Fold these 2 entries.
Entry 1:
Amino acid sequence: MLKKHSPHFHDDWDPESARGIIEQYKGLEGPLLPILNALQERFGHLGDPAVRLVAEILNLTRAEVHGVVSFYHDYRREPAGRHVIKVCRAEACQSMGCEDLVGRLERALGIHLSETTHDRRVTLEEVYCLGNCALSPSAMVDGELLGRASEEKILAAVGEQA
Amino acid sequence: MSLHTGNGFEVIDRGTPERKSEKQVTLEIDGQSVTVPAGTSIMHAASLAGIQVPKLCATDSLEPFGSCRLCLVEIAGRNGTPASCTTPAESGMRVSTQTDRLARLRRGVMELYISDHPLDCLTCSANGDCELQDMAGAVGLRDVRYGYDGENHLDAVKDESNPYFTFDPARCIVCSRCVRACEEVQGTFALTIDGRGFASVVSAGMNEDFLDSECVSCGACVQACPTASLIEKTIVQHGQPQRSVITTCAYCGVGCSFEAELQGNSVVRMTPYKDGKANHGHSCVKGRFAWGYATHKERITKPMLRSSPKEAWREVTWDEALDHVASEFKRIQAKYGRGAIGGITSSRCTNEETYLVQKMIRAAFHNNNVDTCARVCHSPTGYGLKTTLGTSAGTQDFDSVNEADLIMVIGANPTDAHPVFASRMKRRIREGAKLIVIDPRQIDLVRTPHVAAMHHLQLLPGSNVAVANALAHVVVTEGLVNTKFISERCDPTEFEAWAQFVSREENSPEHVEKISGVPAPELRAAARLYAKGPNSAIYYGLGVTEHSQGSTMVIAMANLAMATGNFGRNGVGVNPLRGQNNVQGSCDMGSFPHEFSGYRHVSEDATRALFESAWGVPLDPEPGLRIPNMFDAAVDGTFKGLYVQGEDIVQSDPNTQHVAAGLEAMECIVVHDLFLNETAAYAHVFLPGASFLEKDGTFTNAERRLGRVRKAIPPMAGMTELDVICKLSTLFGYPMHYNHASEVMDEIARVTPTFAGVSFAKLDELGSVQWPCNEKAPEGTPVMHIGSFVRGKGRFVLTEYVPTDERTGPRFPLLLTTGRILSQYNVGAQTRRTPNIVWHDEDVLEIHPHDAENRGIREGDRVALVSRSGETSMRAHITERVQPGVVYTTFHHPESGANVVTTDYTDWATGCPEYKVTAVEVRLTNHESSWQERLDHLHRIQRIETVAAE
Amino acid sequence: MSSSTTDTLVRMANDISNFFRIQPEDQAVAGTADHIRRYWEPRMRAKMAEHLTHGGSGLNAIALKACERACKSVSSAPIYRGGT
């Protein structure tokens, strides 16, 4: 379901291509989510131009589209970094030290949760339950599940030093 | 908003909408037995039993939502505590609305709300009118165990961008009423909830300021908001109102019912009245917020005189002013003849005032030189519908649209000009009704969120009748005629002649395509859709009537509706969207030069005898002068005195030069109005008028519905129009005296059969009434022509397409058409004097990119707009809403001079000006036109010399 | 009255007749005449009558017949000069 994160950046916005994607899915019943998924897949985020274009073609208001986009954590309004780290903070992972792990990552990268490093290389996010509790603490890096996660393993996966 | 208590008009919020059903259910709530239609919520049922279940997210103008969790109840035999707003009542249920468990749960919910809410009730602008406050009291909240130091939204930033209301997210409880009101009631969908959980916050657009978002400032959200989160700036400034008066809006022909809420003699808020049958508790930006013009500093409150328009105005007493008018008019009559004076009644003044003006002209002036602004807007409606059906008015009420399956909008732009009705229409379309739009311009309705026309016949201005004939051609030649209806209700010979006529080749869609630009397949599809129904309704506006074939087009539409059997029930009909708040009433009251009240010709002996007996004087049997002919006669030297009530003919009538020439040729012009307008620049006497807040009377809206106008504040000029007309008539030699407007209505009822049952007492009792209201229909007539037409058999009349004389050519290759915008009203006399300016502070010319490019015009450039009649200038706006070859503008600002360029071509039957078709050229310019420079000068020299204080 | 007013009246009469011209001729003339009688103020009909005495130029065939029917009976409207 979750595709491997591919690094597309905000200056990649291409209205023609976006329009093509929207036209492709707009005939579905309940086309909004498939369209948003596809646009995010292609552009890595759903910025103002995307919201406006979707609203225009589906004959919705930008308020409505914005409401949907802002509701789901996985829809980004701004592009993510080259790499996305998601650390699980649910109960099983908590019991196995994920809070400490989060703290270490924040210090190592110099950012807080939900932020992206200055050089746009890494985004750090929290998730609630990857369903990998037996191998807590768990994390997901660029869409790949990582069990028994540690600061070193995660940073290595994104090409950083601990 | 909580319960309104004002003048005894208490309105209870039952939490969820009323439901209609054949089936009834009986249940027990707190021991009381209640019977309700199936589908009614427990909350609503409880309310009918006098039990108000605590609630925050529920309100009966909106579908239930179930988010606040305050309205929980217990149902015997069921687990849990369901929400009473989302749970339908069922037979045999036993419900408890108050138990210890419920009390604890409700207190718990309130604790959570209050833990994230400012604790400044005493200084909050909603103090005294806050449902959160009420509910905290109702559930017995005593402390908040969570404390107030946790995460909260107290430092959220206010949005004060909208001129009329503030949005303060710190006070928001995310009940979503505002979002739902914007969707369900207004249909604009401008609001959403951004985020989720604790981070949820109301967002206009993509987290934009309200003013920048898609919001149209209708105020439905402000009305729905239970806290001070969305609140009127006037309430913030002045505090809560203490009394209210139910009255009717003075803007458009929807005629929304309002509660004028006051402190002392100041209006602090206008709230749509929930039981208003025209608006059902909704309104638009103008009625709800733009009422400040009534007390604007430019209001003239003293009568003024001057011996010539070149002099400064001199303030005088009422006696002096009225004596002068009477003596001048008498002098003019003595010198030039009985027909040398006349008057124009206002379509914005009440029925009673209008009736008295036409009575004064007929009984005191002894002529029929009376006319009204309907001349320039819907007079073809009167002519066309009277000819075909027998009544000079629309056939349905607004609620009829709820049962329409196919809606055809012709030459109207309801989302801008009749917004409250448009919201209702859009709601019906969201429910599945199909839409056809016939308009040269891509109006909003063609494609707006959640609404899209199945067919937009984008015809060239001036080709209406050709298109209508082509639609009829399809209906007849493809066998879509409703033969049963026609055989029962129409003349068969006339129908045959008509059927043969429309079947001719020249009326085929293929032939008409060359004239109108509408592709034949589109037209055929639209015709089939209309004929299919089952309930097809036509709604139309000035894009039909303001043409040289305006009356012809009205007849054509009525014929189309008859041919397909679309009369005599809900969901169908031919519906004119009448513009002014009382234009229907003004026409009903006999403001036309050829008709007494109730549309009876002055030459009809029996009618005239009735009035001669009622009024005690002989009356002129010949038709009088219509407005454009008054100017002709003035230029010819036989018409010299004019009384103009509440209308700015210089700005709103076509061919300004012609109007000015007429006025300049007259010897005594009396303007009776709220402000010094363009016409006043030519006047000798100015009588200060009274706004709708300052008088008693009635207005009649586009549904033939008479609504009460009730005095909320004393007249600023000391006299209402009623007083003034009586006094003037008396000075003229025909004494008139009425103690109260109700006495005038009683007289109207005595002399007008369609109004025989109308009285202020009945209006107080029923709220409003649609004429005909008499013995046959004591409570009025929502839908007309049920069973048979008023004239008996419906008439089919041949409607040959006659092209207008106004043709494009090398010098004037483009066609100009005109229209309106939501935030401004007509000539802008009222709305330009309110903060509505923020949305539209100038009229612009809409031009297609191709036409603009060919002329080197870019967005915002000043362009000259030139026609055979004259020249003006304005800024250009490049858009594809208009097709190549067509340009468009509005006429809300006098400086735009739209009527300097319009022609004096008119509808053949009524003289209604052809505003909608003018051949023009557009070119870049770097200065105003000479007309505009003269206007600037004219504005600057209008001075008033005030009476020096003693 | 000026000639421009006459031009206006001629145009009005022609416009009215153009609506009725699709009907059989006598109906068209009757319809046009009736309309003029119902809606034209006496001065307007008197002015048209005057124009007819000078030949009625500019009027189309139906309008001419209709004006003769509807306007000739109205004199120069003495009631409109000198007195209430």
Note: The two ends of chain C are 21 Å apart (CA to CA).
Entry 2:
Amino acid sequence: MLSARTKKILVALLLLISLFSIGQFWINSTNITDRGANALDRWEADMILVKKALPIKRGVIGYVSEQDVPGAKYEYWDTETEFLLTQYALAPLILKKGPAAEWNVAVLNYKDLATWQKTYPDLYEIITIRGKVRIFHRLNNP
Amino acid sequence: MTLLSFIIFLPAIFLGTLIIHLIWPERNALAMFLKFSLGIGLGLGISSILYFLVLQIAPGRINTLTLQIILLIFLLAITFLRARKQNWKEFFLPSLSHLQWALIGIAILALFISALIYANTIISRPQGEYDAWSIWNRAARFIYRDPENWRATLSPDIALFGHADYPLLVPLNVAWGWEALENETLRVPMIQSALFTFSTILAMFSAIALTRTIGQASLASVVLMASPGFILTGTNLTADIPATYFIFASCILMYLFFVRNDAALLVLSGFMAGLAGWSKNEGLLFIAISPIALIIASPKNIGRSLLHYLAGLAIPLIIIFYFKSIAPTNDLINSNISFIAKITDPSRYWMILKTLTPSLFRSDIIILLIYTAIMYKHPAPNSRQGIYAIVTLLLLQLLGYCAIYVVTPYDLAWHLSTSQGRLILQILPLELFLCFSISSDPESVFS
């Protein structure tokens, strides 16, 4: 059996360790560096322009990224994150990967855009929104 | 906007608290604290169900907040009529010793610092973590922006990582909150998440205060706030803390049933279990295992106990069944890979054991386990069955998590690394509750 004094020390120790941890969490919380909030806001701002430019407000639209460009180099999780961010921004429009609909959002740099245009010449009207963001409007139904 | 985002949740909070008070009319001050902490979650659960029903009947045409206020007035009238006949002399605040005042003071200080941590962290990333915007707030936007076409959020065309099949408690509350404010502000998910985070702490305090002592309750609350990841997960704006809260709330009520032998508590416990399943798919596992724990812990009167528990579970379960019937199949189920091949592969079990063990026995948990072992005190005879129930729930929930990992269609290492922390967190308050229910309290140690 432990003495009453040892038990008192244990209670005090548990309390002190816990308070120390909470203090550490607080100090850490005052020094948080960029966690991507601004990047997310910028993405949203671009997509608001896309939303305004699109003539449809519900239904399915396509999403063209480096994944759809032959030979393009990309990081899987980067393109996946951009896709999910675009879906979040454009809700309630449903985003489907690839040029899956008459209206498609495209996120491509100039090099990949040029490759895309070579691969699918004259199939899409390309509306530039801002930076890498464009709308591909299919000109004829396949 | 922050204040308004909080005010819109008040009717739901009072609605939940009044429902608990009407079902469980105990009137001592500590029970009132517990009712309030459980009422917050119950109210949020009921408000999401109400909005879900509105979406089925007249989407975009019935204001959910008005509906809640009408219900609240109705319940207030019933409570007032009933309270007139009751003797409120029993209602008193317990007198506290210097030690208890000191420990409560420390707990309040820890709570204040935790609120600062929450605020600092959430301001640095108002949109929440990856899952918050890709799953939960994405679904809320689908519902709020086009309520008449809300089923688009369940479209099978939603990408795999958009998880269109995930339950809607969290997104529905965000959506009706935006509807009430006519503004798609991120303050609404922030406040909802804060309510679940801090009501879990309040539930820990009030449950231990009611069943043990105020000193022990203060200690348990401080340890919960000090647990790595608990407050920070609240700032993620995902459904993990709501699921944690409902699992914990259901277990507390089941424990109290064993202590007080009041079957009304089991009805509430069942309802809370249902809301766990309505907030996150892991809650469905809890719905499956909780009746088993009830049966194991109460060999006598199994029929009566189960009947009350299932009566409480029925409404949220019907909602979940209906929702699942219109939602796409879950990605864990919708897999072509053979279950048998996975179940018979020993390397999967080894990897799960190897990965989960360090999470299950982190330094803070080891400290707590050593503390509990040293400070162990035989539980009172009337709480033994409750302790058995909690131990069974913990073990079965853990086994359930392991079983899901065994059959996961994803790469096991990836699945473990991305989800184990959240799963361990879902049972953390329950672990703490168990430890502080069977260890000596500061009052007896310092007496």
Note: The longest strand of chain A covers residues 124-130.
